[in-house]
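Q: What residues go here?
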């Protein structure tokens, strides 16, 4: 098992917690059509926070739980910066979690 796995699991929990705190968590499940987007971050069908909640977090949790190899690169922080730069609010804690996740997954980012 990758030595980073427990740290990754911790970041997933932090991201979820901060999204809930910021009111970005939803009980409304997107349609199968929306979840089947082939575009990066499903930008054509989902808001960024929907993609994080319904695609990114479940996939990463499965990887962690099954002990599968971690991705070798992540660009979620840069996407989050782009998305949240256009919104009002204190996004620094959430952005920091995404940044730390990216640095853990791809240290050169």
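A:
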């Amino acid at each position: 098992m990758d030595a980073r796995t427990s740290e990754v699991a911790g970041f997933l929990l932090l991201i979820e917690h901060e999204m809930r705190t910021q009111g970005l968590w939803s009980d409304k499940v997107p349609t199968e059509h929306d979840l089947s987007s082939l575009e990066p971050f499903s930008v054509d069908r989902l808001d960024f926070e929907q993609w994080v909640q319904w695609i990114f977090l479940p996939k990463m949790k499965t990887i962690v739980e099954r002990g599968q190899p971690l991705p070798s690169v992540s660009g979620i922080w840069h996407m989050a910066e782009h998305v949240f730069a256009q919104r009002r609010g204190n996004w620094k804690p959430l952005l920091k979690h995404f940044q730390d996740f990216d640095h853990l997954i791809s240290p050169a980012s």
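A: Context that may help when evaluating the design: The chain has one domain: 5-105. Residues 48-66 form the longest helix (19 residues).
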